[in-house]
Amino acid sequence: MFALRPAPTPADTTRVMFSDPALGPSETRAIFVDPFTLAVKGDMVAYGTSGILPFRTAIDYFHRNLMLGEWGRYYSELAASWLWVATLGGVWLWATGRRRARPVNQLPKAQRLRWIHSMIGVSIAVVLLFLSVTGLTWSQAAGRGSTRCAASWAGSRPRWICRWTGRGWRICRG
């Protein structure tokens, strides 16, 4: 038995979680039991330590590997690796582009749509860069590199020493 989740109300079932070596990584077996009659009401594969059920599991697999297995993980990593290039390229195009001479509502439809696209892109650029950087640390290849990097720094946090020099504080790295 891996975990037990009591029924939140008398009408609900108790969830008993079992680890099963026949299941995939991070998967467990969830057995649903009526707390009064002890009758088994269901048996299903759950995902993760919290025991999320099939719909959220499908969302997680789609987010992780686009439902394509290992190839999907590498494809997602490739997209995240180039996201910052596309984002910064768009911001650069916006910053160096021509300024409009007339109000937005007087622009032709194609130019108005281009203006809307650029405003949305510039508005979410920081979020996209953040998602790219943080997502890569969880990925296959780049994630391995960031894990090795963090492990090499473990326990070697820089120490800072402050000394009074008579004219003020001097900060030296120790």
TrEMBL record:
<feature type="transmembrane region" description="Helical">
    <location>
        <begin position="115"/>
        <end position="138"/>
    </location>
</feature>
<protein>
    <submittedName>
        <fullName>PepSY-associated TM helix domain-containing protein</fullName>
    </submittedName>
</protein>
<keyword id="KW-0472">Membrane</keyword>
<keyword id="KW-1133">Transmembrane helix</keyword>
<keyword id="KW-0812">Transmembrane</keyword>
<feature type="transmembrane region" description="Helical">
    <location>
        <begin position="74"/>
        <end position="95"/>
    </location>
</feature>
<dbReference type="InterPro" id="IPR005625">
    <property type="entry name" value="PepSY-ass_TM"/>
</dbReference>
<dbReference type="Pfam" id="PF03929">
    <property type="entry name" value="PepSY_TM"/>
</dbReference>
